[in-house]
Amino acid sequence: xxxxxxxxxxxxxxxxxxEHKLEKYRAKQIAEWMYRxxxxxxxxxxxxxxxxxxxxxxxxxIERVTCVRQKVSADNKTIKFLFSFADGETxxxxxxxxxxxxxxxxxxxxxxxxxxxxxxxxxxxxKRNLTAGEILSQLLYVQKILGEEEQHVxxxxxxxxxxxxxNYDNVVRFLRLCHEPYTMGLSYRSMxxxxxxxxxxxxxxxxxxxxxxxxxxxxxxxxxIRSEIMPINRKYGIDEVLRASEAYYEKTGRRITYEYxxxxxxxxxxxxxxxLVRRLRGQNANVNLIPVNPVPERxxxxxxxTRINRFCSYLQDHKIQTTxxxxxxxxxxxxxxxxxxxxxxQKK
Length: 348
Hints:
With 348 residues, the protein is an alpha/beta fold. It folds into three domains: 3-61, DNA polymerase, domain 1, CATH 1.10.150.530; 64-186, Aldolase class I (TIM Barrel, Alpha-Beta Barrel); 196-326, Alpha-Beta Barrel (TIM Barrel), CATH 3.20.20. The chain has helices spanning 10-18, 26-35, 50-59, 132-148, 168-179, 199-206, 223-229, 238-252, 270-280, 305-317, 338-347, and strands at residues 3-4, 60-61, 66-72, 78-84, 90-98, 101-105, 109-111, 126-129, 153-158, 191-195, 213-217, 256-262, 285-291, 322-324. It is elongated.
């Protein structure tokens, strides 16, 4: 079987090609062709001789994603992609054109096993983890599109389908890989990882010395509500998650963001806001309120604008830094998992 070079570090490429008598410095050329010039075949690598191209073609492949569906919002600020991988599995990626730059939301797994009630990604269950190369390939597909417009990706969020910290090794490998100058050269401070609270992996991530932003999917002020909407809470309760989050801040100096999806009649009451204030008081963190994206299979509704603003004001009035997430792509079902679920239904 041929070895896939896409997703390897330059040093790893050098080891593979050395077995076929190609010089070590060729690895940098190959890496830059794949990652910076978006080459999908060795014949495109014109700095290599025809003989070298033939050797590479005989022993190696470059596996990139294929776009099978694409939706563009009416304002052209949001594009949602459904990508297919080499085995035919699919996952979603979203480009969001923000005032401060271009942000890309990436998937880390095919499907998800976490079972959060408000998320469409989990409806079909977890199929498998994505490799570092498959995560990177999503990003570079979007970067190629932006490059044609003389723009570039300025930030990434691992907030698409899947739980990043369940796919820990591949995710950390991806973060390090897209930081390399021969791939994206992206600053770690431009990276955000969102987790539902896999406590041991939060401590492990803190020790990686990667100054990325950690975003915690909290979504409730107490264990009773959180366990109802997020099954993972039965394993890692709120107190454990908050302690791990504080440890991450102390180790990295990076402020924590707590995501809080507002669900009508479930967690949007002032009593919930008051309890949240008491839990978060004193933390160097901010809260990002997210009006729920209705998932037909779940029957959850978003609160009225009045209830959303009242919840936000209560937190702000009690000195909790709080924002309401700016919604993008609502006209194209940009929430995680929706496009993939539509695609799977149509295939069936």
